[in-house]
Amino acid sequence: MDLIVTTRRQVLAQDEGGHACWQVVERSEMLPAARTALLICDVWDRHWSRGAAERVEAMVPRMNRVATALRAQGVRIIHAPSDTLAFYEGTPARRRMQELPRVPPPSPRDLPDPPLPVDASDQGSDTGETEPYQAWTRQHPGLEIDHDRDGISDQGEEIYSFLAGQGIDTLLFMGVHTNMCVLGRSFGIKQMVRWGVRTLLIRDLTDAMYNPARPPYVSHAEGTRLVVEYIEKFWAPTIHSAELLGGARDVGAGDR
């Protein structure tokens, strides 16, 4: 079974007057379900930032619908709730990742890594919290785990071994936070791209850690949009969850 999606990326081009500009390029593509996986990044049960927690809470129902729909089509689901794997110790989904044969990843490609477009040096909370702490204990309970098929891991090389062992060459990402964990974890977009794994970000099911009181002094939603555009320019194309759900657009982080 194939998934039909419209990928979006941005390329540096010239307008009619010869001025440099970023141009959006969209393309319809077919993704074989058997060679595709979905990774759910750090969608925890709690967060130290109230604003971050509220936005995750709003996205979780649609995230679960996406995971359920993709699973039914044969896409493998990887749950990656960092720092909470002790909660899942001994479960079939965790053991599946621990016991699989290891496949060493290739030497990472040396790729440009431009600075992010938003300043999160204050940790990025937009609801006043300034001191991060580990509030999370597990993945959000609203995200269902199928222990007969899914995997649970927060280790990049472990996840790479799973992909290689299953013949998976395309990895879809949803989760948080776009400018932090989604990009920077050992299993994040940057590392997977450096290892040669094709990655696609589901752009309406992610959220940045960004405080509008910091540069570039835009709304939180605009800050997230800027990070998504940064990914489209320098790291990976994006897709919209609507195409994974038959065109329905409802609750989420916005129709980016």
Layout of helices and strands:
Layout: E1 2-14, E2 20-32, E3 36-41, H1 50-72, E4 76-80, H2 92-99, E5 151-152, H3 156-165, E6 170-176, H4 181-184, H5 189-194, E7 198-207, H6 220-234, E8 238-239
Parallel strand pairs: 3-4, 3-6, 4-5, 6-7, 7-8
Antiparallel strand pairs: 1-2
What does this structure look like?
- This protein has 256 residues and is an alpha/beta fold.
- 26% of the residues lie in helices and 23% in strands.
- The strands form 2 sheets. A 6-stranded parallel sheet has the order 5-4-3-6-7-8.
- Strand 1 and strand 2 form a beta hairpin.
- The longest helix has 23 residues.
Order of helices and strands: EEEHEHEHEHHEHE
Radius of gyration: 18 Å
**Order of strands in the sheet with the most strands?**
5-4-3-6-7-8
- The shape, in one word, is globular
Q: How many strands?
A: 8
- Return the domain count: 1
Distance between the termini: 27 Å
CATH homology superfamily name: Isochorismatase-like
Structural class of the helices, strands and pairings? alpha/beta
CATH third-tier fold name: Rossmann fold
CATH class placement: Alpha Beta
* Overall average pLDDT: 96
Oligomer designation: single chain
The percent range for strand residues is 15-25%
Briefly summarize what is shown.
The chain has a single domain, classed as Isochorismatase-like (Rossmann fold, 3-Layer(aba) Sandwich), CATH 3.40.50.850. It contains 6 helices and 8 strands.
Keywords for this entry:
256 residues, alpha/beta, Rossmann fold, six-stranded parallel sheet, two-stranded antiparallel ribbon, 8 strands, 23% strand, disordered C terminus
